């Protein structure tokens, strides 16, 4: 099977971390944990030559194959540097690669399971970026999964580790545990009530970061925010998880309160906000990506507040992915110009909401 055929197969696969149910999934879309790891004795990717990067890729892929064979799970492998720009954009929209991988260095690779809930980027900023995703707010369950995989992979690949500094990484902020834990939150209540900036400032003061839909360097769309730790040195994995889980729990509580206050104190405003969004999604013939994500955010709020009987929250989650550029072009089966994408997006949404 060619790489393009594998990509098209991924497009048709259910994305477990966004379509399945999870704890607090009315607000928490998904949870993610990432480990940064490097091969002992090797130059970081930014310093390594092409020959070294290709050799490291081969060694890492062989190690992952050994673990996957022992655990009896199927993986898909991609040489990212040989993929088309459209296929790389598709993987970015699926949150399987980083923005840096849109312009990958030689030797870049991706390995993912079929459900797209566990994957490894090879030769990004570090030799390995091991990541797991799950629906809702369940960082501690994810920690068990990634820790077990990391332990087994370390039996095949020697990781760079220092007794004083911990895991050695290309960026100093990843030194120590090499761990980033994040939760993607849907926060329309805090946005509509004007409280979001105060909450985000509080997050920053607590040593956490708030990022957009695609993580670092991306803009906020659809009232979706990724909350994560900023550094991993000086704390254990358990301490990092405890700190971020406490903050996430507080944000979720604030969002629930904001929604209830909107419903009780500004009911007409809320109904109008949701109703206009639903009308836009159901009746548009041209709609941009930003318009659709913001309208889907309002619709998701309405679904959670029991304003709709025929629309499910996981359908809205799935549409957050499907309305994006590369997904639309996969759906259409060809590359599309901007206005064509807006028309195909509108037709897709009309189909969903008229059934």
CATH superfamily of the largest domain: Glutamine synthetase/guanido kinase, catalytic domain
According to CATH, the fold-level topology of the largest domain is Creatine Kinase, Chain A, domain 2
Number of strands: 10
| CATH class category name of the largest domain | Alpha Beta
Strand percentage, roughly? Answer: 15-25%
Total individual domains = 2
Give the CATH architecture of the largest domain: 2-Layer Sandwich
How would you sum up this structure, described in words?
42% of the residues are buried. The strands form two sheets. An eight-stranded antiparallel sheet has the order 2-3-4-5-1-8-10-9. A two-stranded antiparallel sheet has the order 6-7. Helix 4 (85-93) crosses helix 12 (325-332) and helix 9 crosses helix 10. 49% of the residues lie in helices and 15% in strands. It has helices at residues 3-12, 16-19, 50-71, 85-93, 139-154, 188-192, 196-205, 237-265, 267-283, 289-304, 313-322, 325-332, 338-354; strands spanning 28-37, 75-79, 109-113, 118-122, 128-135, 161-162, 166-167, 179-186, 208-211, 224-229. It has 355 residues and is of the alpha+beta class.
How would the blueprint of this fold be written?
Blueprint: H1 3-12, H2 16-19, E1 28-37, H3 50-71, E2 75-79, H4 85-93, E3 109-113, E4 118-122, E5 128-135, H5 139-154, E6 161-162, E7 166-167, E8 179-186, H6 188-192, H7 196-205, E9 208-211, E10 224-229, H8 237-265, H9 267-283, H10 289-304, H11 313-322, H12 325-332, H13 338-354
Antiparallel strand pairs: 1-5, 1-8, 2-3, 3-4, 4-5, 6-7, 8-10, 9-10
């Amino acid at each position: 099977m060619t790489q393009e055929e594998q990509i098209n197969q991924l497009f048709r696969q259910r994305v477990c971390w966004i379509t399945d149910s999870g704890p607090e999934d009315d607000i928490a879309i998904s949870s993610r944990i990432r480990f940064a790891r490097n091969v002992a004795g090797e130059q970081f990717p930014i310093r390594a030559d092409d020959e070294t990067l290709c050799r490291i890729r081969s060694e890492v892929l062989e190690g992952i194959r050994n673990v996957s064979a022992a655990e009896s799970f199927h993986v898909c492998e991609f040489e990212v540097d040989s993929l088309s720009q459209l296929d790389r954009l598709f993987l970015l929209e699926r949150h399987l690669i980083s923005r840096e991988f849109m312009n990958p260095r030689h030797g870049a690779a991706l390995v993912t399971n079929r459900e797209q809930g566990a994957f490894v980027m090879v030769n990004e900023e570090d030799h390995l970026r091991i990541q797991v995703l799950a629906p809702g707010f369940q960082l501690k369950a994810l920690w068990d999964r990634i820790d077990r995989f990391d332990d087994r992979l370390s039996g095949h690949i020697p990781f760079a580790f220092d007794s004083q500094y911990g895991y050695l990484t290309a960026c100093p902020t990843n030194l120590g545990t090499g761990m980033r834990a994040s939760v993607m939150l849907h926060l329309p209540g805090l946005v509509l009530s004007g409280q979001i900036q105060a909450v985000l400032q509080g997050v920053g003061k607590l040593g956490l970061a708030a990022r957009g839909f695609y993580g670092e360097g991306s803009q906020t769309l659809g009232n979706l925010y990724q909350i994560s730790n900023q550094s991993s040195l000086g704390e254990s994995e358990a301490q990092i998880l405890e700190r971020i889980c406490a903050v996430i729990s507080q944000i979720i509580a604030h969002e629930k309160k904001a929604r209830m206050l909107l419903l009780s104190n500004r009911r007409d405003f809320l109904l109008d906000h949701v109703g206009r969004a639903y009308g836009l999604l159901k009746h548009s013939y041209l709609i941009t990506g930003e318009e659709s994500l913001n309208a889907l955010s309002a619709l998701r709020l309405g679904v959670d507040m029991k304003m709709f009987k025929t629309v499910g929250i996981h359908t809205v989650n799935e549409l957050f992915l499907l309305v994006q550029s590369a997904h639309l072009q996969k759906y259409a089966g060809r590359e599309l110009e901007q206005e064509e994408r807006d028309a195909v997006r509108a037709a897709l949404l009309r189909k969903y909401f008229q059934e």
